[in-house]
Amino acid sequence: MSRSRRELFGFHRPADTPVHRAPLALKASGVAVISVLLMLPFPWLLRRLGIEAPETSWAVPAGCLLLVLLAAAAARIGPRAWWHSLRPASWILGLLAAYHLLLRRDPAMAAEVLLTVVTALLATRVLLETTPLPDLLDGLVRLLSPLRLMGADPERIGLAIQIMLRSIPFLTGVLDDLRDAAAARGTRLGPVGLAAPLVISAVAHGQRTGEALAARGLDSPRP
């Protein structure tokens, strides 16, 4: 697997750090708490309590970002890994900044929105880089275990998510290979030219995955 494919969402980097050794439940709970803090409308809540507060507040996401950066430093995750997480979203961050700064003329809101998005991306990166994928999927299956009462199969849900996570880097790699092949021939494929071979590769990958599941007896519902 090429480096560009592995860097899409981050991948587990084995290391002997406190964050790597921490239980999955603790790390997942930390990400959940940070997510809740990022979503809570603290200025509105303070005004409901009779406390004067500005319309926006970037202090909370800034504090959450500081905690995430401290956890990343403890896990020996450097700026290069942060950039790999932020690079795909850089154009979205730029549009958000331009909208709030140029159209709404609200620097405080721009700071709050950008800090919120960056913090969420980096928190996810820390979790993914310090936890092996099998452990993440096992934790998800345990989290979804109450769905058995409704007739759902948490193991099959976990398997579907694992297939999806493995398919995204595969398709990204196919896209890179198509562009490299076109560049080697001195041509440049646009979205229309890339669509057909990409769809064919996706269908072929889906068929191979289905055949592999069938060979292992995983294509039929459990009794």
Structure description:
- The chain is mostly helical and 223 residues long.
- The chain contains eleven helices and no strands.
- The protein has two domains: 18-131, no CATH class; 147-216, no CATH class.
- The chain has helices at residues 3-6, 18-21, 24-39, 42-48, 59-74, 79-86, 90-103, 107-130, 133-143, 154-184, 191-215.
- Residues 1-8 have low confidence and may be disordered.
- InterPro entries: ABC/ECF_trnsptr_transmembrane.
- Its main location: membrane.
- It is found in: Membrane.
- It is a multi-pass membrane protein.
Q: Mind sketching the topology for me?
A:
Blueprint: H1 3-6, H2 18-21, H3 24-39, H4 42-48, H5 59-74, H6 79-86, H7 90-103, H8 107-130, H9 133-143, H10 154-184, H11 191-215
Helix pairs in contact: 3-8, 5-8, 6-8, 7-8, 9-10, 10-11
InterPro entries: ABC/ECF_trnsptr_transmembrane
Keywords: Membrane, Transmembrane, Transmembrane helix
Membrane topology: Multi-pass membrane protein
Short summary:
This is Transmembrane component BioN. This protein is an all-alpha fold and 223 residues long. The protein is 72% helix and 0% strand.
Overall shape: globular
Alpha-carbon Rg, integer: 22 Å
In total, the number of strands is 0
What's the domain count? Answer: 2
Structural class: mainly alpha
H and E order = HHHHHHHHHHH
- Count of helix runs: 11
Q: Largest sheet at a glance?
A: none
Q: What is the mean predicted local confidence, pLDDT? A: 80
> Uncertain regions: pLDDT < 50 for 5+ in a row?
1-8
**Termini separation:** 37 Å
Helix content: over 70%
Strand-residue proportion? under 5%
